[in-house]
Amino acid sequence: MNLPLWIARRYFFSKRKRSFINLISLVSMLGVGVGTMALVVVLSVFNGMEELNRMIFKTFEADLTVAPAQGKRLTVSPGLMQKIQKTGDVVLITQVIEDNALARYRDGQTVVKLKGIDNSYLQRRQLDTALVQGKLRLQEDGINYALVAEGVRNALLISPEDMLTPLELWYPQNRKTYSVLSSDAFNRADFAVSGVFFIEDNFDDYVLAPISVVRELVGYQQNQLSSLELQVKPEVDLPALKKTLQQQLGGKVVIKDRDDLNPDLFRAIRIEKLFVTVTLTFLVLIASINIFFSLSMLAIEKKDDVAILYAMGASPSLVRRIFLFEGLIVAFIGGLFGLVLGIALCLLQQRFGFVSMGIESSLIDAYPVKLQASDLVITTVIVIVVTSVVSWFPARKAAAVSKAVDSVQ
Hints:
By secondary structure, the protein is of the alpha+beta class. The chain is 53% helix and 20% strand. It is elongated, with a radius of gyration of 32 Å.
């Protein structure tokens, strides 16, 4: 039997006398519980925000992207394509040329991100759920079509139903000197708008067009691209495939997943998550200070009991452990209550979505949450460490004071 734990449990669950110390202990438990619950819920919300952004990017971006390690142009050789296809895990390879261009429609004009793609992009069926008007097509019956984001449609007042008014795309010619006032200084391509899509504000300035026309517009050679987008099988281990492709293709290219394409956003989310975790840790620390006071008062109340223990041969370390276990019992009950309540709130939010985002244009109505075992472990460690440190000082002081009193007597 663990004697210090047994005595601490007797002190905690004793029904003989309910005093102010019990009230402080109860407040301590509630404080630790609320802090623990807040940690679980807030960390899960940040996880949900990460997954929400990945879901948004999955609607537009490929699983893996092969980009040049230096510069803007990727030289694609038959050997490079064969190495990618040999993996057997790549389902579709989309050739992409991407650059900024000037879009004009009737009397309006705006700068857009022009993305030249082949038909394999539509075979990925990523835009099926994002299409808000028109059809998904790039070339049909000798007509070149463009797909525009809703932001471009609103800026230029584009109507996909108007087949007579073309969307003009202008790109500066590759010359050492030219006059911006001359129309001859720019390449021009006309497209009929086949459809409008909406994903998220970050993709609201995109125009998708056939890569054959875009290549001529921006002046890329036949073997030059901006990137290759790879759609892989659903069951494939993406990090392992990314590492394998990087080793096979060499250092002239870099393999990126969706997180690599949006590093600033995910870095910002993780930094915010770190600072919120530190802030809520201080909340748990403040709540745990009540444990310090309750243990200090308990040491005074149980002074005679401790003197008897010393008379029976107890050591100072045993007395310290009694009060340390007393504080840990308070923290354990409060922390367990907070963990259970936090997990329950997250599961209810996932199932019913009680807390709304409050944004009309959001893809989802409720705040996204995602429970992760690592966050639960981190929360548990934080509670244990903070409460143990807070409990140690009054426990050590109780043992020293009680030993001193016993020596005087």
